[in-house]
Amino acid sequence: MTNKSPRHVISSSTSSDAPDSPALNTSIANENDTTLIANKFSNITLAEREERQKALDRLEILKTVGTGSYGRVLVAQDRESSVYYALKIFSITHVVQSRQVEHVKSEKEILSGINHPFIICLHWTHHSDQFLYMLLDYVPGGELFTYMRKRGTFDLKSSLFYISEITLAFEYLHSLQIVYRDLKPENILLDAEGHVKLVDFGFAKKILNKTFTTCGTPDYLSPELFKGTGHHKSTDWWSLGILLFEMLTGYTPFNPNQNEIEIPSRVLAGRISWPRTIDDVTKSFIKKLLIQNADKRLGAGKNGSREVKEQAIFSSIKWDDVYARKLKPPIVPPLEHPGDTSCFDEYKEDWRSVPFASDKDLDLFADF
Ligand SMILES: Nc1ncnc2c1ncn2[C@@H]1O[C@H](COP(=O)(O)OP(=O)(O)O)[C@@H](O)[C@H]1O
Ligand SMILES: [Mg+2]
């Protein structure tokens, strides 16, 4: 599939620890030969640790299907069951140096506690003296991003399919007081049948009131994130508005010229030029999601996601059918077998040689 230039993520650091100097020794790790690290401070029993190590050793690592600013995702096959998985790995030294310790831990905590048809399933986490590991279901259909760039735009019916499934995922997360904070087509994957799986919980956070760390991808950031005045669940509804606009037009509303520098001022000015192809009902829905004042935005009221689901744009949608995966996916990924990687881009396999983590850095992940 086509290559893409990645959209950047912004993340203010959340780790208060000063970064260590990098360990000097680097090595070529063999996936069959990772050392078992059992830390004396861990809450995880040695037996559990050994189980995870065995499960890791059983995996045959096949290839990279995704990279981000902090992690890399590899397809792997369990040699016993033949099941394919996605193994998300992070270099421990890199996570510490880029001050993403809290984000990675929170990704694990949040994913461990959730279960929803449109959200990725995490099986276990583990670490070696170089890497953190998260074993996820493999979602073979690839990124919605790839299909968007290939097709240019989606029609309204197709867009509503994706928006509906994401709305239910957000409703579920928000009911657990979790904000997702990184909605964009790169983090929306299609499963073998074409239904949505939301991945990448690196910026997701459990919040009771407001939170202040700025993170996300410029095109999708809400005004309160640019202002740093604190944000809550309604920042996710903002990003849903951006996504719908991007699906229908092929570009995001505050970055029509593909010039990231202009985004903050355009978002804060809140002016959008509306193409004539967007009908009035859709326009009014997107406008309500893109209300500047986060407390007045659609979805921010006390009825939360119900406000969103009751909008005219969804009048033909039966929400029980959406949850039951009964809507017909507009795209069925062209897959030949469950481990097919043809829907993903190609990446260099240059990940094995990373520094060993220092004992101090390893201690940070004793429970991982
Ligand atoms: N479970 C998965 N199955 C298949 N591909 C995945 C899976 N999780 C992530 N990916 C791919 O890897 C990319 C990077 O993963 P992501 O979790 O978004 O990491 P990052 O935090 O580095 O952005 C995703 O955009 C997607 O293409
Ligand atoms: Mg991502």
Automatic annotation (TrEMBL):
Residues forming coiled coils: none
GO molecular function terms listed in the Swiss-Prot or TrEMBL record: ATP binding; cAMP-dependent protein kinase activity
Residues where ATP binds: 88
Low complexity bias locations: 11-23
Gene3D superfamilies noted in UniProt: Phosphorylase Kinase, domain 1 (3.30.200.20), Transferase(Phosphotransferase) domain 1 (1.10.510.10)
Classification of source organism: Eukaryota, Metazoa, Spiralia, Gnathifera, Rotifera
Species this chain originates from: Adineta ricciae (Rotifer)
Protein name per the record: Uncharacterized protein
Region described as Disordered: 1-28
AGC-kinase C-terminal domain segment(s): 315-368
Stretches assigned to the Protein kinase domain: 59-314
Entry keyword set: ATP-binding, Kinase, Nucleotide-binding, Serine/threonine-protein kinase, Transferase
Record family assignment: Belongs to the protein kinase superfamily.
Keyword Nuclease tagged: no
Keyword field contains Transcription regulation: no
